[in-house]
């Protein structure tokens, strides 16, 4: 009996929290962040796809990206082309953060 009351209280609190979040726009922002994060690729996977190392320069990464993207545009698959593009996006974020870190120092 006590667990039933507790379960109802938790559900009611959850519903109230959702209602409050939707009023403030937090719910929509959270959903967008989850969607964005699910599309992001991990850095090691991105490096593996493009065939670069942590020591590779941004110019090397762009050369690899251009080469792989063009190969898959001509006679490859859209899936592979999109993986190559996501890998470049991931590493672009990493290199931008590194660049900002060196400017702030």
Topology:
Elements lengths: L1 H23 L1 H14 L3 H8 L7 H18 L2 H27 L1
Helix pairs in contact: 3-5, 4-5
Describe the protein:
- The chain has 105 residues and is mainly α.
- It has helices at 2-24, 26-39, 43-50, 58-75, 78-104.
- The radius of gyration is 22 Å and the shape is elongated.
- The mean pLDDT is 79.
- This is Mitochondrial import inner membrane translocase subunit tim16.
Gross morphology is: elongated
> Any low-confidence stretches, pLDDT <50, length ≥5?
none
Strand content: under 5%
Structural class computed from helices and strand pairing: mainly alpha
Number of strands: 0
Topology pattern, helix = H, strand = E: HHHHH
Distance between the termini: 60 Å
Short summary:
This is Mitochondrial import inner membrane translocase subunit tim16. By secondary structure, this protein is mainly alpha-helical.
Which terms summarize this structure?
single chain; 105 residues; mainly alpha
